[in-house]
Design a protein that fits this description.
Blueprint: H1 2-10, H2 14-29, H3 32-36, E1 39-41, H4 53-61, E2 65-73, E3 86-88, E4 91-98, E5 104-106, E6 112-114, E7 128-131, E8 135-136, E9 142-143, H5 149-153, E10 163-166, E11 187-190, E12 193-196
Parallel strand pairs: 1-2, 1-7, 7-10, 10-11
Antiparallel strand pairs: 2-4, 3-4, 5-6, 8-9, 11-12
Length: about 210
């Protein structure tokens, strides 16, 4: 599933990608959760993911606090400082305030991330979490890149903080394999609209 959807994302023509990206952004900006949020957790899209830079710029322009994650791996019991790291088992995310492109540096996984010395925030300050994924389904199950960083981080958010997946419509599939440690999202924003997820809804009958 990961391979097939990555290939499909990568095969999008430039014009189609721009159209889809603009539609996803418009749907996210129209969400009441986005309008209410003062502090929004976003991420810098990579490797064919639905583009997020315009959303980041719009959130800053609206006067919101934009938070970006930094991937952290560690050995032993204590994650490295100085920013707190939220996760477990040697993998987690640190959360940093973002003010502009100069704040970003290449991370260890080839991602653009905040500098380690950028101002940090806690999960309790986040009002809305926009979450990447390779695939989602209508129950809110999510298939990530395989590293488990978000699955370890998301339980650190306070209860009630909306978790919103951000993806192309073809990334919403009938069923995503999910185990007890896999974290779900509350909604998925796509170029075709907003899907409000219901964990009690199974895949479509045939």
């Amino acid at each position: 599933m990961r391979r097939a959807l990555r290939e499909r994302r990568g095969a999008l023509a430039a014009d189609e990608r721009r159209r889809r990206d603009a539609a996803i952004q418009a749907h996210l900006l129209a969400m009441p959760e986005f309008a209410r949020a003062r502090t929004v957790l976003l991420y810098v899209a990579v490797r064919g993911e639905a583009e997020t830079r315009d959303v980041i710029a719009r959130a800053l322009g609206d006067g919101k606090r934009v938070v970006l994650p930094r991937v952290v791996r560690w050995q032993g019991a204590v994650p490295p400082g100085p920013a707190p790291v939220y996760g477990s088992g040697g993998r987690g995310l640190a959360l940093h305030l973002y003010s502009g492109p100069a704040d970003l540096v290449p991370g260890p996984m080839g991602l653009l991330e905040p500098r380690p010395d950028a101002p940090w925030v806690t999960p309790g300050e986040v009002d809305l979490a926009v979450v990447p994924g390779v695939a989602f389904d209508r129950t809110g199950a999510r298939l990530g890149q395989g590293g488990g960083f978000y699955d370890r981080f998301l339980p650190c958010l306070p209860p009630g903080v909306p978790r919103v997946g951000y993806a192309y419509a073809f990334q919403v599939v009938d069923a995503v394999p999910a185990g007890p440690g896999d974290q779900r999202v509350d909604a998925v924003v796509t170029d075709e609209g907003i899907i409000r997820c219901r964990p009690d809804v199974g895949p479509p009958s045939t």
